[in-house]
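Subject — a protein and its fold
Fields — amino acid sequence, structure tokens
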Amino acid sequence: MSFRVTESTQLASAQRNLQLSAQRLNQLDEQVASGLAISKPSDDPAGAATLLDLQRQLAQNAQYQRNAGDGTAWLATAGTALTSMNDTLNQVRDLTVQAANTATQTPTSRAAIATQLQSLKQTLLTLANTQYQGRSVFAGTSDAGSAFNADYSFNGTAGSSVNRRVGADTTVRVDVDGSAVLGSGSSSVFALIDSIASAVSSGGNVGGQLTAIDAVAANIRGAEATVGSAQNQLTGATSALTTQATTLQTSQNGIQNVDAAHAILEMQTQQVAYQTALAVTAKSIQPTLMDYLR
């Protein structure tokens, strides 16, 4: 059994082939002009889906890097304040030792030491209320402007912590609990210095207060070590995130960006094929009487 291929069928087939060739030529032209292998999902559905996932991962990575940067700044602020606190408390200790030697102290020298102690206490209180971008780094999750009030009561949220997420399963604490380090109210280091200054002024023995000072100093050093460990963790996380971002970007570029040399060569080949197809089609489809009657 034989089938007859009509001229209309031939014409439809030729038009379809020419349209497909023209579409491919247009696609290559767009790729060369834009530098993108995928301009719309229909260009490569699978590739477009992969690109969307890569873009999601890149956006997430960028957020983690911002979190790490913010956390690093929090820790740097807290660490600097703790270092200054430690230095200040060392001065308090030195003055206390000096005042404990009552045999060499006169009322005038005791008054001077007491004044210096009060000044150092105020310095500690200022450091304890250190802020980063309007938030106290020693007040936990509280948005209060200061961690400690004038009466030395803790103004923050005891036991709470400020964390920054730097990975799907990784968070880093970036604040310091001021009440745990410096105490609160009558049991705070500020009240301790007040009592030492008062005893110095009255000529009392302050040697027994050295143990309490050393306990606060140990708290500060412990907090410094914790902050340093968190900073190291963020440094490692930042390095890993930077490497991951580079890898993701490379993958995205490999899928999204066109190989210009290859695309130009393919476009030239496609142009030759298209022109050849036009010529062959014109010759293969014979004119009919209807062509002359138009």
User: Anything to note?
Assistant: The longest strand covers residues 163-167. The chain has a mean pLDDT of 84. DSSP finds eight helices and four strands in the chain.
